[in-house]
């Protein structure tokens, strides 16, 4: 067995032990196919007010500009599909935000993986990324064979659908690289047909500035009136395109205790949400990603749904 393969197997085994769903590895190099796609998307202002998407264009496409001397991108998936969901007929929160903020949960696992690499392999330099730097997570995960990018622009796998987080370790170590998998969306247009705000403007292209997740999380100003009545009761994020995807019938509940919600979150009715106080907000969303909108943002979203 080659040294590269030996190190690769070690890393993948440890990733599994840490609770990651899967681990794929690709060569750190310029993302040629993504460059024109990203440029076109930005030129059409599909990023809306997410101006950070315009920054670091080169680094976004080339990990060697982000991490000096990098050779490999290790992509990891972590399942967040919940065992139980919110009650029927209430204001909804995207499933990824039920438990503790995933940034902290994943960062801690990545740190452990980095320490393992240093102990077992030696002086390997690298950086961990969880959705907070100019890294095209989905493109790297697809390149390393963890799934394909579906028509709703999320990463999809035949085995477990799409309810998982993506993270990376970019390292200066040569490893054994995986190959991409084929697209299995076929002629299905379930996600396009179901999107409440018609944000999936064509297969594989989502206009971020029309997405319910964008309006309820990223947008700092008032939500445009033209979208009134089109939010399908989503007050933080939106899972519609994933919920209707046939591949998600294979989703299995996660086993990460930190992703379990506070019990009251699942049982709150529309009336409860309308009357929510800042104290209740702080209690229910103590370490949650929902804190990103702040109490005032969630109140704005709930007002918009009335």
From TrEMBL:
Residues 173-205 form the 4Fe-4S ferredoxin-type domain. Binds 2 [4Fe-4S] clusters per monomer. It holds the Pfam family QueG_DUF1730. TRNA binds at residue 220. [4Fe-4S] cluster 2 binds at residues 195, 211, 238, 241. The active site is at 131 (proton donor). GO terms for molecular function: 4 iron, 4 sulfur cluster binding; cobalamin binding; epoxyqueuosine reductase activity; metal ion binding. Its cofactor is cob(II)alamin; [4Fe-4S] cluster. One of its GO terms (biological process) is tRNA queuosine(34) biosynthetic process. Transmembrane segments: none annotated. GO terms for cellular component: cytoplasm. Pathway: tRNA modification; tRNA-queuosine biosynthesis. Belongs to the QueG family. Catalyzes the conversion of epoxyqueuosine (oQ) to queuosine (Q), which is a hypermodified base found in the wobble positions of tRNA(Asp), tRNA(Asn), tRNA(His) and tRNA(Tyr). This is Epoxyqueuosine reductase.
């Amino acid at each position: 067995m080659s040294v590269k393969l030996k190190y690769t197997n070690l890393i993948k085994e440890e990733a599994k032990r840490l609770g990651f769903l899967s681990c794929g590895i690709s060569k750190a190099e310029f993302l040629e196919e993504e460059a024109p796609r990203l440029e076109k998307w930005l030129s059409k202002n599909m990023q809306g007010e997410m101006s950070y998407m315009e920054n670091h264009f080169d680094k976004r496409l080339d990990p060697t500009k982000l991490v000096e001397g990098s050779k490999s991108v290790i992509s990891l998936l972590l399942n967040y599909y919940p065992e139980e969901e919110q009650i029927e007929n209430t204001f909804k929160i995207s499933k990824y935000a039920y438990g503790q903020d995933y940034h902290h949960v994943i960062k801690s696992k990545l740190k452990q993986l980095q320490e393992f690499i240093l102990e077992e392999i030696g002086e390997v330099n690298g950086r961990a990324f969880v959705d907070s730097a100019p890294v095209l997570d989905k493109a790297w995960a697809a390149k390393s064979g963890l799934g394909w990018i579906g028509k709703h622009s999320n990463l999809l796998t035949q085995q477990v659908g799409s309810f998982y987080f993506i993270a990376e370790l970019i390292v200066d170590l040569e490893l054994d690289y995986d190959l991409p998998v084929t697209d299995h969306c076929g002629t299905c247009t379930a996600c396009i047909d179901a999107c409440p705000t018609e944000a999936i403007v064509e297969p594989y292209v989502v206009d971020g500035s029309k997405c319910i997740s964008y309006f309820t999380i990223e947008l700092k100003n008032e939500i445009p009136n033209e979208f009134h009545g089109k939010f399908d009761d989503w007050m933080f994020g939106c899972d519609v395109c994933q919920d209707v995807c046939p591949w998600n019938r294979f989703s299995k509940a996660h086993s990460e205790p930190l992703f379990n919600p506070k019990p009251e979150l699942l049982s709150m009715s529309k009336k409860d949400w309308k009357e929510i106080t800042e104290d209740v907000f702080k209690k229910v969303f103590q370490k949650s990603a929902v804190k990103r909108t702040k109490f005032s943002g969630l109140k704005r979203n709930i007002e918009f749904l009335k």
